[in-house]
């Protein structure tokens, strides 16, 4: 069956001497694998459109249970800047890797597609990359069924006096319940406000937010620890981000 869809390239790898296989995320079909014959060749008409992060119109032939075969494609947004800037590339790669590894074949939604599209654009526009990543991580937690409790104490349900975040217990803790997790992460009002906001916020409405360094450090610890405990995937792109942070690159 010939399919005509918009899509974002999540992953692109060489196959054979001249071909590429791309992992394409689409609003209608979810995630699909597509073979682009000859795309590895410099003069190929498919060389540019099969690059990582490319958003475009794709026409491919696909039978049930088989990989698609690319017929034609047109670029809507090339996202050159995401591939040329080291920091942008690392953070955009993390969004793409999460989408690619956490979605099964032909799994996804129009909403998630729009969130990814907006996230890549937000990074390219110079918005705070860490906040973009955390917002998208929260969308991934929701997709996986592990959305943390952030609007009340996960233990007693109290909405006041929230002072910490417990990744192992699955959400925020009030001061009276903090003893239940001795390694719970202390959070201030700024981090708590954002943790409450992320599950409800649409990436398409993200503005040029200004977040204090202390708040961002708390958010980073909360989100990364929660991801490691509940999702348990070793992310290549996040490891690279952490190496850049470690060596202040």
TrEMBL record:
Superkingdom of source: Bacteria
UniProt keyword terms in alphabetical order: DNA damage, DNA recombination, DNA repair
SUPFAM superfamilies according to UniProt: ArfGap/RecO-like zinc finger, Nucleic acid-binding proteins
Pfam annotation, one family: RecO_C
Chain coiled-coil ranges: none
DNA replication/recombination mediator RecO N-terminal domain mapped to chain residues: 4-78
Keyword DNA damage: yes
Family: Belongs to the RecO family.
Role: Involved in DNA repair and RecF pathway recombination.
Protein name (record): DNA repair protein RecO
């Amino acid at each position: 069956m010939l399919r005509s869809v918009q899509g974002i390239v999540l992953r692109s790898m060489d196959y054979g001497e001249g071909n590429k296989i791309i992992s394409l995320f689409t609003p209608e079909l979810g995630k699909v694998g597509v073979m682009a014959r000859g795309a590895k060749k410099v003069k190929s008409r498919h060389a540019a459109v099969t690059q990582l992060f490319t958003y475009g119109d794709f026409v491919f032939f696909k039978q049930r249970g088989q990989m698609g075969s690319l017929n034609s494609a047109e670029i809507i947004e090339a996202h050159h800047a995401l591939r040329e800037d080291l920091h942008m590339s690392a953070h955009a790669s993390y969004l793409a890797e999460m989408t690619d590894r956490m979605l099964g074949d032909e799994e996804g939604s129009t909403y998630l597609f729009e969130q990814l599209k907006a996230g890549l654009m937000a990074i390219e526009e110079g918005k705070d990359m860490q906040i973009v990543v955390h917002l998208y991580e929260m969308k991934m937690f929701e997709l996986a069924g592990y959305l943390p409790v952030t609007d009340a104490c996960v233990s007693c349900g109290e909405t006041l006096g929230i002072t910490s975040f417990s990744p192992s217990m699955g959400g925020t803790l009030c001061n009276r319940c903090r003893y239940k997790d001795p390694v719970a992460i202390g959070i201030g009002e700024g981090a708590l406000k954002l943790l409450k906001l992320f599950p409800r916020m649409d990436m398409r409405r993200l503005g040029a937010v200004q977040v204090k360094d202390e708040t961002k450090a708390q958010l980073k610890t909360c989100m990364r620890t929660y991801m490691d405990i509940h999702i348990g995937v070793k992310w290549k792109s996040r490891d690279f981000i952490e190496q850049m942070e470690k060596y202040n690159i």
